[in-house]
Design a protein that fits this description.
By secondary structure, the chain is an alpha+beta fold. Among the domains are: 97 residues, Beta Barrel (Elongation Factor Tu (Ef-tu), domain 3); 142 residues, Jelly Rolls (Sandwich); 66 residues, Immunoglobulin-like (Sandwich), CATH 2.60.40. It is 14% helix and 27% strand. It contains 10 helices and 39 strands. An 8-stranded parallel beta sheet has the order 1-21-20-19-18-14-3-2. A 6-stranded antiparallel beta sheet has the order 6-11-8-9-10-7, with no helix packed on it. Helix 5 packs parallel to helix 6. The protein is globular and about 85 Å long. The N and C termini lie far apart (59 Å). The relative contact order is 0.10. The N terminus is likely disordered.
Length: 712
């Protein structure tokens, strides 16, 4: 039992046998607690997920994001602040930041016992961890290194500092990391007779100085719990760790996991993902420090090495070092014979963690880009960090965000929880209308809202301020005030004439352009079939629909598709599609996914995507990942913005993603039902949320949304 767990058990009164004993109940003042749970006995729980408010079909759904991990005394004050939405998410372990385990596991656990209907979920780094945090069971070969250099001088055991002559010192760096003030962590190991690195005989060191001219590195020996051992010239090897971070003052360089299925195994035959699964099961299962938590959210769990933010710079032309995922001393991108072995390992990790935790734990991960994990059917959902993504405060990728969340809503494991972490990267000038549009997107896509950006506090307010739209303004309800949806989201573009005049995809084949002889387009009745001919797994299929009339600066496209899974990906993974438009010039396009289930994707283009208001005909470019067959059963195109509405038991949500005003006709949409505005806070938007009645037509400004209360 590690020291942090021992201290927590002592502090809370746990016996180490799990919470089914008597320890923590008496410590927190609860004499008895009886909750039924039908989970696997190995993953037994005190609180089943079915009791969580945030999983109920009432909107808006909202919880506190990582502000919850800033705990303070007394507990009761912190609890009263966090007890105003439907739960908390935050860090409680020290894989990324130090000092959190002194109080957070206890606070989060007490909160869960006091509020079993609220979600308590761990925020956890998915790519890496601090090298001094619970790494005892990990093997030196479980970490991802860059390609390294041969050691050309003898090293003695027991030295504190050593100067090492290497074959090429360019493989090592100083003043690196996020703040450019860190030096490499380096692994030393012996070489096997065949010249391959042997990480069973190794040591960890820290770079102190670098002499590029003479190929000498000066290092601090015996770091991170290893011993200074002897190494022979010409028969030893040095490689820098692939790292990310530091993420703040209490962090440091974080060693990246080597998820590759070709990575080294330890003497027990286990690789990195095996040990990481074990570590997390020890944490969450009965007797673990977080056994009452409802699950885990992985912050950045990426399948492709080239897409890792901390590594992408090393794949640029002229780079001397790149990751070495199969530990042969040579650079690679994790892909071998066309198969992404690194991504294969990430998927195996997700699959085995799910099997170990069972279905009464939520497993979530970042999913706001095309390179995040696609473990459909394994994960319960995704986080979008910012919406559509944190660097898009103009909401230009509206359709990509909608598609991602709706596809996950259809394909995630039950119970489903997708959420938007409401934040922006940097400090962009964002209107309150855009903030509302993000909250509306949650309600339109069956997603939850994670409170991160906060509005301005009211005079004299001491608790964390909350957006009016989440709690019905001054009525100060709990989340869920809108109630249950009375139907799916309505796309108002679909009420307008179809620019294709009802032609089916099979009929449209005569208007399609295909410049690639390796891509076949054929009609199967009214359905269009697209298929690659040469079987190149890494090649995308491309085709065009040309000469589409567009008498507007807005064009919204809907494609209904399904397809076979691609041979080089795991069966749970969907394939990426992108749709771009050429008016004045080509726009790169917005993304969606396609798998064996039929799914309708939407793509809204406007002036930000090069659509011209001068009636220039438009060409659509469609790209589909992989050569396996895909079928398009429906195509509809409208000269109209992707304005959306959704009706709930107690109100409605209107959303205008267009770069210009849009007018909603409430009578046409909802008949003679009556609505009023929220009565909002004085420091948010008292003009929009003034409590007044709304009748007839209502105009929303560009990039804005509106939450209205039903008048009964």
């Amino acid at each position: 039992m590690d020291q942090s767990r021992r201290e927590f058990l002592k502090k809370t009164g746990l016996t180490g046998a799990g919470l089914f004993g008597t320890g923590i109940m008496g410590c927190i003042g609860i004499k008895s607690l009886t909750v039924s749970c039908t989970a696997n006995p190995k993953t037994s729980c005190l609180f089943p997920l079915s009791g969580l408010k945030v999983l109920e079909d009432n909107y808006p759904r909202s919880f506190f994001f990582r502000m919850s991990e800033t705990t303070y005394e007394p507990y009761e004050t912190w609890e009263s602040d966090m007890n105003r939405l439907s739960g908390i998410m935050g860090k409680a372990l020290e894989e990324e930041k130090r000092g959190l385990e002194k109080r957070n596991p206890e606070y989060f656990t007490r909160f869960k016992i006091n509020h079993p209907e609220q979600i308590v979920i761990l925020h956890y780094a998915g790519n890496s961890r601090l090298p001094d945090y619970r790494t005892e069971k990990f093997h030196a070969g479980h970490w991802l290194y860059f390609n390294g250099a041969t050691i050309l001088s003898d090293l003695s055991a027991g030295e504190d500092v050593s100067e090492i002559r290497v074959s090429d010192a360019r493989f090592f760096k100083m003043n690196m990391g996020r703040y450019e003030d860190e030096n490499d962590d380096i692994g030393l190991c012996e070489l096997e007779e065949n010249g391959l690195p042997d990480w069973n005989r190794s040591e960890q060191v820290k770079l102190l100085s670098l002499d590029l001219e003479n190929n000498i590195i000066r290092v601090k020996r015996a770091c991170y719990g290893t011993a200074a051992r002897s190494f022979k010239s010409g028969k030893s090897y040095a490689a820098a760790h692939a790292c990310e971070g530091p993420w703040g003052e209490t962090s440091g360089l974080m060693w990246m996991y080597n998820f590759s299925t070709l990575s080294p195994r330890d003497p027990e035959g286990k690789n990195c993902k095996d040990r990481l699964v074990e570590d997390l099961l020890d944490t969450f299962l009965p007797g673990g420090i977080l056994e009452l938590f409802d699950g885990i959210e992985f912050d950045v769990l990426i399948e492709n090495l080239r897409d890792q933010p901390a590594l992408s710079q090393y794949y640029r032309p002229g780079s001397y070092r790149m990751p070495d995922s199969n530990a042969d001393g040579q650079p690679d991108d994790g892909v071998f014979n066309g198969v992404n072995k690194f991504g294969e390992g990430v998927m195996q990790f997700a699959r085995e963690l799910r099997e170990g935790l069972g279905d009464n734990r939520l497993i979530l991960a970042d999913g706001m880009t095309d390179f995040h994990i696609r473990a459909f059917g394994i994960l319960n959902g995704i986080e979008s960090e910012g919406w559509p993504i944190g660097n898009d405060p103009k909401i230009n990728d509206w359709s990509g965000g909608i598609n991602r969340h709706m596809f996950w809503d259809k394909n995630a494991r039950e119970p489903k929880l997708n959420f938007i972490n409401h934040r922006w990267w940097g400090r962009p000038d964002v209107t309150i209308g855009v903030e509302r549009l993000v909250m509306a997107a949650c309600c339109l896509t069956n997603s939850a809202h994670a409170l991160n950006i906060r509005p301005k506090a009211e005079p004299g307010q001491t608790q964390t301020p909350i957006w009016d739209e989440l709690v019905m303004g001054q009525a100060n309800h709990k989340p869920g005030w809108l109630g249950k949806p009375l139907g799916p989201t309505r796309c108002l573009a679909m009420t307008k004439p179809d620019l294709l005049k009802g032609l089916s995809p099979g009929q449209l084949i005569v208007r399609m352009q295909n410049d690639d002889p390796d891509v076949s387009l054929s009609a199967e009745g009214n359905i269009l079939k697209i298929e690659g001919q040469n079987g190149e797994s890494g090649k995308a299929m491309e085709f065009y629909i040309s000469n589409i009339p567009c008498p507007s600066e807005d064009m919204t496209v809907f494609l209904t598709m399904h397809g076979e899974t691609t041979a080089v990906r795991s069966p749970e993974e969907a394939r990426l599609i992108r749709v771009g438009a050429k008016g004045r010039a080509y726009h790169r396009g917005m993304m969606s996914y396609v798998n064996q289930k039929s799914f309708q994707s939407g793509f809204y283009f406007n002036s930000a995507h090069n659509i011209s208001p001068d009636k220039t005909p438009v060409t659509l470019k469609i790209e589909i990942e992989g050569p396996e067959p895909v079928w398009i059963s429906d195509i509809k195109i409208y000269a109209h913005p992707d304005a959306r509405v959704r009706e709930f038991e107690n109100g409605i949500v209107l959303a205008n993603p267009a770069p210009h005003p849009y007018t909603f006709d409430l009578q046409s949409l909802f008949g003679h039902q009556r609505f009023r505005r929220l009565k909002g806070s004085s420091e948010q938007d008292p003009v929009t949320n003034d409590g007044s009645k709304v009748e007839g037509k209502v105009e929303l400004q560009k990039k804005d949304a509106l939450f209205l209360v039903r008048v009964k």
